[in-house]
Design goal:
The longest helix is centred in the last third of the chain and has 10 residues. The protein folds into two domains: about 120 residues, Alpha-Beta Horseshoe (Leucine-rich repeat, LRR (right-handed beta-alpha superhelix)), CATH 3.80.10.10; about 120 residues, ADP-ribosylation fold, CATH 3.20.170. Helices cover about 5% and strands about 40% of the residues. The chain is elongated, with a radius of gyration of 21 Å. It is built from one helix and 20 strands. By secondary structure, it is mainly beta.
Length: about 260
């Protein structure tokens, strides 16, 4: 059953007394999504923001999400060009594909520690840009996702080790790839964090190809695998620029194309 409350359409589950945000009736400037909506003297808990709920609401500037929502749907805020502020509560565990893609003016975002799934290109081309950072010995600090077994395109990595590839490197073709903005990782990997994918801080050196118009992905001939990162670590990086360096002990040389 669909109802309209405060100019927002909800789909109600009358059996479970829950509600899903479907879409606004008018294109809003500011939105507050409550924890509950009331209809015919019954309260319904708002648990989800539906697919494309606010997609292309180009005048929307700020969103506050109530601490009952657990999932943000596919393209929920896609192309909200004017969006500059969003409050995501700790209750959220699931952010679907393209949820915030092309929110060009969204310059900061906090991902709750309870989020376990981030979908493909969930943050593609948002307004958050980070300056490149380097270690004291000149290595480029970046961030890399791996499968849960620490492989990337069948190549096996290990925390604390260094790797080097010989010959010419080329972005998206040959070399060790990573992103200097950790949110850009989700342009290439998605899934359950800590189960399907793991994220590590890495350090790039040697020959580096940074010719990328689309995001912060870079390629290097040498890579050192630093510590595994939690979402809390990533939030520190994107919002507070708290960078933590790791220790490395073993060097390996390889002769094949890797990623």
């Amino acid at each position: 059953m669909k109802v309209i409350v405060e100019k927002i359409k909800y789909e109600l589950d009358t059996d479970n007394k829950t509600a899903v945000v479907k879409n606004p009736i008018d294109i809003p400037v500011k939105v507050i999504i409550p924890e509950y909506v009331e209809y015919e003297n019954e309260k319904y808990k708002v648990t989800s923001i539906g697919d494309f709920a606010f997609g292309e609401c180009d005048s929307l500037t700020s969103v506050i999400i109530g601490n009952s929502v657990t999932s943000i749907g596919y393209m929920a805020f896609w192309s909200c060009y004017s969006l500059t502020s969003i409050t995501i509560p700790d209750s959220v565990t699931f952010i679907d594909n393209e949820a915030f893609s092309y929110c060009h003016n969204l310059t900061s975002i906090n991902i709750p520690d309870n989020v376990s799934f981030i979908g493909n290109v969930a943050f593609l081309n948002i307004g958050l840009t980070l300056p490149k950072r380097y270690t004291e010995d000149g290595k480029l600090i970046a961030y890399k996702a791996f499968n849960d077994d620490m492989t990337c395109r069948t190549f096996q990595y290990e925390e604390g080790k260094s790797y080097e590839i010989e010959g010419k490197i080329k972005l998206c073709n040959r070399g060790f790839h990573a992103c200097t903005n950790p949110l850009d990782i989700f342009n290439y990997y998605n899934g359950q964090i800590g189960e399907d994918i793991v994220i590590h801080e890495v350090y790039l050196s040697g020959e580096i190809d940074e010719d990328n118009k689309y995001d912060s992905k870079v390629c290097a001939s040498k890579i050192e695998i630093g510590k595994r990162l939690s979402l809390k670590d990533i939030n520190n990086i994107i919002n507070n620029m708290n960078i933590y360096l790791g220790m490395f002990v073993i060097n390996n040389t390889i002769d094949d194309s890797v990623s």
